[in-house]
Amino acid sequence: MAKPKTEEPSAEDAKKIVDDAKNFIEKAIADIGKTSATKQLILGTASGWITGFITMKLGKVAAVGLGGGVILLHIASQKGYIDINWEKINKKVDKISDKIEKETTGKGPDWFEKVLLFVKDNSYYSAGFTGGFLFGIASS
């Protein structure tokens, strides 16, 4: 019996899916401010708890992976398996940090102002999200 042929989504299909997701998120965020204070607190607490829980789980995995990788690289370097050109790495890091600093100082305030405006307009949701986020971190 032959397996049915499955087609991979095209770039246009992927772009449409991303656009649909953006529209859904934007609509959901716009609708939050129109709901009652109780509903905002419930939604904020639930989404904050989920975000905090996932952040802690992913954070632990990322910390173990990154830390383990750094330790393995250091051991391999000490034992002579690899030779690290620290001068080249430092130059690259300096270039990247300069570029990041330039990008963040030029675009940072716009993003931060949007966040502050959202928090001010949806104070109940924001309070619920903060509490839920802390519960999510504590429960992981």
UniProtKB/TrEMBL annotation:
A GO cellular-component term linked to this record: mitochondrial outer membrane
Q: Which domain of life is it from?
A: Eukaryota
One Pfam family per UniProt? FUN14
Tell me what topology the record assigns in the membrane: Multi-pass membrane protein
UniProt cross-references to InterPro entries, sorted A to Z: FUN14 (IPR007014)
Q: In which compartments does the protein localize?
A: Mitochondrion outer membrane
The UniProt keyword set, sorted, is:
Membrane, Transmembrane, Transmembrane helix
Q: Which family does it belong to?
A: Belongs to the FUN14 family.
Q: Can you say what this protein is called?
A: FUN14 domain-containing protein 1
